[in-house]
């Protein structure tokens, strides 16, 4: 089995290089140094199994794109009429519940993906190409 490391610059131009990766007896994969360096990979990557190949994708650091949606939580609470100490108490509660809600949404998506037969290319086409 070949393992492909992909780089996509944008949806119009698609660059792809292939290399053979070495898999050790402990199932550890060695990523070619130039691929590792160009993609600026960290300690962890996302692995996606699709049909008979594995995609290895860079994980973005949480801090780079993290938004705890505090402004939206506050906006809703104000709209609901909370003020003063009640506002602060409800804000803290909802902020604490937010990660749990996100985990529940992720679990729902994982369940939906199990029955979705579309390839990532089909999904990209549906999401990003205009009619």
Would you write up a description of this structure?
By secondary structure, this protein is of the alpha+beta class. It contains five helices and six strands. The strands form two sheets. It has a four-stranded mixed beta sheet with strand order 2-1-6-5, with no helix packed on it. It has a two-stranded antiparallel ribbon with strand order 3-4. The longest helix is centred in the last third of the chain and has 32 residues.
| Arrangement of strands in the largest sheet | 2-1-6-5
Radius of gyration: 21 Å
Low-confidence stretches: 1-12
Mean pLDDT: 80
**What is the H/E order?**
EEEEHEEHHHH
Q: Quick one: how many beta strands?
A: 6
Question: Strand share of the residues?
Answer: 15-25%
Total domain units:
2
Helical amount: 40-55%
Distinct helical segment count: 5
- Please summarize the sheet with the most strands: 4 strands, mixed
